[in-house]
Design brief:
Layout lengths: L5 E6 L9 H9 L3 E6 L14 H19 L2 E4 L11 H14 L3 E4 L11 H16 L3 H4 L11 E4 L8 E5 L4 H15 L4 H12 L7 E6 L5 E3 L18
Parallel strand pairs: 1-2, 1-4, 2-3, 4-5, 6-8
Antiparallel strand pairs: 5-7, 6-7
């Protein structure tokens, strides 16, 4: 019997997860553990009008709780400031502590992108922080007293239209209704994501693979292609990193 896997999704703001909703639902349907972490609370949004930042944070936290309910997953917020994410050793250490605690089999985050939306400075910094943290989580002196996480934990990142990296795709058609339900958690307050935009994006992702709706990611360390789930991930070359450092 296949053991349950752990998928960690680490993103900058609540609502960023719409791009991986079908993937998270795929893993939950298999009985895997899914943990969604937002580095900020998205408190700089102006969608609520001229209200105090503390109120915005409260409402964004409520969005996060509802998103977790819709997806059936674990959620948590870190305390980085919205629009001021910077990849520093201290920031990666904080995220490394989360990775060491969660011990994921696979990590999903942002990659390097040049298209509008994905190139948001917080998105770029988030990806750099998380990708660095995967390595830092291997170092016991950084994450102590939690046990270091030295197992293979490949990263998958949101795929931009100009990405030169190999890609993986998942058929998410069985979960479209739940993906749209997640979108509604945010749309009434933020006017994002529009349901038509969600469906168009999923359909465009799917075209190269002969599917109706798909989510695609850059594969940094694993073999490309159409997969049924991100876990277990097959390395693109033999994984030879030492268990101990």
């Amino acid at each position: 019997m296949q053991r349950p896997y752990t998928l960690l999704v680490a993103l900058a703001h609540p609502d960023d997860e719409i791009g991986a909703a079908g993937t998270m639902l795929t893993h939950r349907a298999r009985g895997d553990r899914v943990v969604l972490v937002w580095l900020t609370r998205g408190e700089m949004t102006e969608a609520f009008g001229p209200v105090p930042a503390a109120e915005v944070m409260t409402r964004r936290e409520a969005h996060g709780r509802e998103a977790g309910r819709v997806l059936g997953i674990e959620t948590r917020f870190l305390d980085f400031p919205d629009t001021r994410l910077v990849c520093t050793p201290d920031a990666s250490r904080q995220v490394a502590a989360v990775i060491a605690e969660v011990k994921p089999d696979v990590v999903v985050t942002f990659g390097d992108a040049w298209s509008r939306g994905l190139r948001h400075p917080d998105h770029q910094a988030c990806g750099q922080i998380v990708r660095s943290a995967i390595t830092m989580a291997r170092i016991q002196k950084i994450v102590s007293p939690v046990e270091a996480h030295r197992e293979f934990a490949p990263v998958f990142t949101y795929r931009g239209i100009h990405s030169p990296l190999p890609s993986v795709a998942l058929d998410v058609e069985p979960f479209v209704d739940q993906i749209l339900e997640l979108g509604r958690v945010y749309f009434d307050d933020l006017q994002f994501p529009d349901p038509d935009w969600v469906l168009t994006r999923l359909a465009k992702n799917a075209e190269p693979w002969g599917l109706r709706y798909a989510e695609c990611f850059d594969a940094w360390e694993t073999k490309p292609g159409l997969v049924s789930a991100l876990c277990p991930a097959e390395p693109s070359q033999p994984y030879s990193h030492p268990v101990r450092t």
